[in-house]
Fold this sequence. Notes:
22 strands; 2 domains; 13 helices; seven-stranded mixed beta sheet; six-stranded antiparallel beta sheet; alpha+beta
Amino acid sequence: MEGVRQIVVVGGGPAGMMAAIKAAESGAEVVLLEKNHLCGRKLAITGKGRCNITNTKPWSEFMTHVHPKNNFVKSAFFNFSNEATIEYFNSIGLETVETQGDRVFPKSMNAFDVVDALVDRMRQVGVKVVADADLLAVCTDGNIFKCTFNDLSSPRFIRTDVVMAKALIIATGGLSYPATGSNGRGYEVAASLGHTVTDCFPSLAALLPRNYDSRLYDVELRNVGLNLFVDHDLIQSEMGEVTFTEDGIEGPLGFRVSRKAIHALENGSSVELVIDLKPAVPINELKERVKREVASFKWEVPMINEARMKKILRRFMPAEMIDPFYAMSKNLTVNTLADRLKDWRFPIAKHAGFRRAVVTAGGVSLDEVISKTMQSRLDKGLFFAGEVLDLDGDTGGYNLQMAFSTGALAGLSAAKYVAAL
């Protein structure tokens, strides 16, 4: 590609597309390199195909769902907040709707509509998108970035090409969902340019219990408590929904504790999840309820066998849970039932890994990036946005909002930088 461009954005995900759009809206010439044939491949599968664009919580609450340094995101958030994100999507023709938990989705509940809105906007503001461009390396020549990439557009042969720019925005994402093209190349490039990359591990991923009972697959529990124990110490307590899948324990609660659980597993610690099926009922009240339910059957306690115990369990849980719960509750009796309902233990063997992790924890060190501009402290022409940074959030729209916020700020900052040259 001939000539030196003003800005090159690497990565056509939510952060990269927003960075390219905001830079182009500011008058900059922008080229975006995307490894896949189309932009937004991972974005198209988020939120189970519905795309949870953002969360409307105010910053004071929003920040509690950001890790590991939530204050780093503050400038980006207030530059392009959740309210601004909603208004922006509405302004470019995408209607949105707010649902339970302050979550915002496209009104169509179709993630492809979000992708299309961003791609159309890039076209409108003149962003040149180079698809099938697999970045190989970046080097600097004076104040110019030289980006070498493989052109994968031809099925017959691979051609190596180069694009040069005055400013570079790295928005390559992380390692999660590698089937969508995530390969960690952004970390390699950042390291080659002198940046520190912290240890990366999956977050918002399923936790697989030891001796996992397949009869639990597809069971969903609402209004339960979930406690995370690491090396027998209580680390985190949550309330909400749990989903059992083929990969293990997921759902909002499973994902919420997964970051600390996975980090502990990676460090060789023992991890155990404990589900409280009746968190709103104190143990003494639950014991009294058990007595009343047993009495309603008019059975003598010594005569309560397995079949009868399972009938009692039906008063406390969905039918599909009874067999696995009974099998996991060794020596279950009427006298121990209340305790077991509030203390259902799942020793965790492993996690699902990056294959189905929603987001990557770890990444480019925040100490080497200026939070007010997303600009590198090591090279003024280098900017970062999105998941490639050592930033991750809880499930519920927080990660996408951080991608949009950091992307918008990086794009605006890069445009100001090249305009001042």
